[in-house]
User: What shape does this take?
Amino acid sequence: MQLPFPLQKRIHSVTNLIAVASGKGGVGKTTIAVNLALALQQQGAKVGLYDADLYGPNVPLMLGIRRKKSAASIHPSGMIPTARVNNAPYIPPIARYGLQIMSVGLLMATDDAVMPDPRMAGHIIRQTLQDVMWGNLDFLLLDLPPGTGEPQQTLLEAFQLDGVVLVTTPQDLSLMDAGRSLKFFQQFKAPILGVVENMSYLMCPHCGEQIEVFQRSPGESFLQQQNVELLGRIPMHIEISRGISAGHPLMEDASDATHAQAFQQIAQKIMQKCTGQNDGK
Ligand SMILES: Nc1ncnc2c1ncn2[C@@H]1O[C@H](COP(=O)(O)OP(=O)(O)OP(=O)(O)O)[C@@H](O)[C@H]1O
Ligand SMILES: [Mg+2]
Assistant: This one.
């Protein structure tokens, strides 16, 4: 049954709200979200990135942003003690490498906190997203935790997405999980921009040879059946993981490297798809 979502709204001043999602954990969503945000920016877009992973906020680490001890403005109870006037956004984003960044984990008083239950976490994440003073953005990427529970449910009920990028790896299990995610987002009528296959093959840092590490699953036929585009294949590369660990993502540090090309191509496709969709907005 298709449900209407009359409460879905748009985020003021954001043209394209794009979720980066996966069914399974650890497939590289955050790595892809951070590098794609930079790749979109390099193509001239104004880009924000919202880390919606309350339990494992990795965006700040990957961008070398340290938590300020006194930054807590949201209590785990869900009460937001800072004054919010007329529901106007009041949280300044963090500027990093030209991106506008916010991580809900940075705002939580987690030092000795009891983590909120998932539905409450969903509400906190939704509220924070609209409380950030994003400014005019062409793209706001949402780095979601894995799965189709919370906060995905609350976010999709609350906001109209302009696109979903599903991240998967070549293995079967991951593809089955991607299928589950696909149905979940389609149920909310969110346009599926396509799938990014991460850790698709190993790229030797010495000779550039492409080594197929994982046994390939019938992933492309699965995508064809579902009428979903494969946006690109990202190699497994030591500079991708090192850049992420050092807080200097590949697309900030070495965006012209061979293994960075896939990010540029994916960003181009997303720009084209979203521009087409936006014509009628
Ligand atoms: N293409 C890649 N090449 C090398 N390392 C990668 C690549 N993609 C991701 N990684 C590494 O894999 C690990 C997991 O990546 P990441 O944290 O982005 O996954 P995730 O899907 O966001 O995880 P979670 O589900 O926990 O949020 C990280 O250490 C990251 O550096
Ligand atoms: Mg992540």
User: Anything to note?
Assistant: Residues 261-278 form the longest helix (18 residues). Residues 20 and 165 are 5 Å apart (CA to CA). Residues 29-30, 53, 58 surround magnesium ion (ligand 2) (CB under 6 Å).
